[in-house]
What we know:
Structural class: alpha/beta
Low-confidence stretches: 1-90, 97-154
Shape: globular
Number of helices: 13
Number of domains: 2
Distance between the termini: 42 Å
CATH topology of the largest domain: TIM Barrel
CATH class of the largest domain: Alpha Beta
Amino acid sequence: xxxxxxxxxxxxxxxxxxxGRPWAVSARDPVEWVPGREALARGxxxxxxxxxxxxxxxxxxxxxxxxxxHPARAVAHPVSAVARPVVLPVGAAVPPAGAAVHRPGPVxxxxxxxxxxxxxxxxxxxxxxSAAAAGCAWQSCRSVMAQDTTPxxxxxxxxxxxxxxxxxxTLRADWRERNASRLRAGERIGITTHVxxxxxxxxxxxxTYFPSPADLEYGNxxxxxxxxxxPDRIRGYVTVNPNYATHARVEIQRGLAAGMIGIxxxxxxxxxxxxxxxxxxxARERGVPVLHHVWQHRRRDWPGQEASDAVELCxxxxxxxxxxxxxxxxxxxxxxxxxxxxxxxxxxxxxDLSGSGVDGGMLESCLAAVGxxxxxxxxxxxxxxxxAKLRYLERLLAPKELELVRWKNAxxxxxxxxxxxD
Length: 422
């Protein structure tokens, strides 16, 4: 930014405008920094603009010709903009003797300003500076005095289809910190929406994979509360236990009515069991996807859960071809190649890339087995490995393909309009 047209370093007025800091008149410098003054002082130099950009002159001094000081590409003063005088707070330091003290005149209100020539700037003492001269000053301080007319920029979308949060009845005493840390990490990664679930009490008062109706309701309510607190960042799955068939259907309808956008099934019942059919039928009626917990190639059972693998999930998906399913965490452990072989022939199952596994060749195999149109990005509990997979995909995929995995595929799975991009 030039301090004067064609000569000299930037003046203090220009430095003030560039930094957006308040200023006041001084004998040592046309503008002297006064930390902590009200932002009202930002209009002072504009009111007292002289022949040079950023210079101040005593009240009543003759102005230079406007044409001699108007720089190229100067921004015109907005029509009807009103200038205000500097008023120092009570107790402010008195300028030294002889200083060019600004003598505030009456504040010009919009109604009064309307009678001035269009584009003219009203000085506190009533003199009118031409629009051209005012434009020179406006060019320098537009960042602090003009309204920002830049169109809002929509950030690049990134949807995490498999997130988790906690509440006060889980086993984590630091649940608030963990929730906050997920959001902070999401900001750094670039996540625009966390689609999350809470699995009851996460094992505190009922098993994680066999939660009680009371724990399910409490966890779903906690997630609805988070959605309301962060409406642009968090969306929720209704988590249910299909063994409580009636409760599951009622809870799904309650959650969807409260703004949740999907259904989460954990390891409470085999995916191939007909007990899940009423839940899938409800998902079809409401147009929401089902995220199903899957162990990649289950070879045995574990206490407290009835885990499913991809073969069993595909059997359920084949019975409900109009329902959109998401196979959870392909990187969650186990034989992911076994899962991919089963998924290849069932088109209504998408592959969630989350999980702590980062095996070499896994992402390439997912692409080869189901194609880029069926891959969705997620993190589960390990956001670092989710971020690592995303960075790898940035080098593996073309930009348009990467957009599919980052958010477009997910947007097609969920109801239209639930994400900012829809």
